[in-house]
Amino acid sequence: MLYPFVFEPILKERIWGGRRLAALYDKPLPADVPVGESWEISDRPGDVTVISNGPLCGQTLRWLMEHHGAELLGATPPADGGRFPLLCKILDARDRLSLQVHPPATMAAALRGEPKTEMWYIADAEPGAELFVGLRAGTTRAEFEAKVRSGEVAQCFHRIAVAPGDTMFLPSGRVHAIGAGLVIFEIQQNSDTTYRVFDWNRTDRDGQPRELHLEQSLASIDFADVEPALVSSPWVARDRFESRALVRHELFSVDLLRTRRAATLALGGGPMRVVACVDGELTLSGGELTVTLHAGQFALVPASLPATALDVAASATSLLVQGGA
To answer: Are 56 and 4 spatial neighbours (Cβ–Cβ below 8 Å)?
Structure first.
């Protein structure tokens, strides 16, 4: 029988990254390298996470999908190539990311890319931190293209001040960028296609400007997507905990759970789930194995488990992700 899986994260050097993943979540960052991403659950070609707990320790998520895909996913469909459908990350944006877009499903194949719908949960934010999401009201395609040529395209982006606990949903086709001073939990489609519109005139370590993808970007952007808002769903009080529905989409659903005292949540059988500990400590019990999650750790709960208990000994916040069907 399968059990809740924890994986060794894959750390990614990024020009805009920092060192906060070590300070906040004790990630083992390499010395003197700006780390921008910790891939917690990944089944990407060349970037597959390795199981770090239980009898299958040392096997990979790719191996799990090849040998136990139906048990793992249940009714959730896999990504192309039979891969795990989601990519789960923590991002540390010391600097601004590029202004960018991911291709929508209707355009991705023609552009030789993959669609990418995602959500951001703000785990930490410096004062004044902001997101660039969608277009400002009144922005036309002609104006956008003119601002791209003049290097002023950031003026066309809608900017939103954010604080810890805020959430933004980003369907494919929505232009966006993460601002400086943010740590974000990201749940996304299994995709790594990004088209850069503008990169703040930065250069890489060799002094060269990073590649832009203007033709692909203009083909992907939803120019009717104007001034989107942060998720504003209400808190719902339940027995010993409260929850908010953050995302309801065919690809995945996400709920935020918050407890102030000891509590147990029975997950039961059903769709594949991912549990991410934002702060505090959680314990998952299922398949005759118990795993404890600390802040910044993720666990994958297979659909085939008949019952899984999520126990919280004290105050904690977590994301509960459910695969689409």
So the answer is: no
Give the model confidence (pLDDT) of 209-236 as tens digits. Answer: 889 999 999 999 999 999 999 999 999 9
**Rounded distance, CA 35 to CA 18, Å?**
5
Does the active-site annotation cover 174?
no
pLDDT in tens, 107-156: 999 999 999 999 999 999 999 999 999 999 999 999 999 999 999 999 99
On whether the CB atoms of residues 13 and 56 are closer than 8 A, the answer is no
Which domains, and CATH codes, for the chain?
A: 7-220 (2.60.120.10), 236-323 (2.60.120.10)
Instruction: Indicate whether this model's pTM tops 0.85.
Output: yes
Burial class (CB in 10 A: 0-12, 13-18, 19+), 290: middle
Q: Which of 14, 20, 96, 196 is catalytic?
A: 196
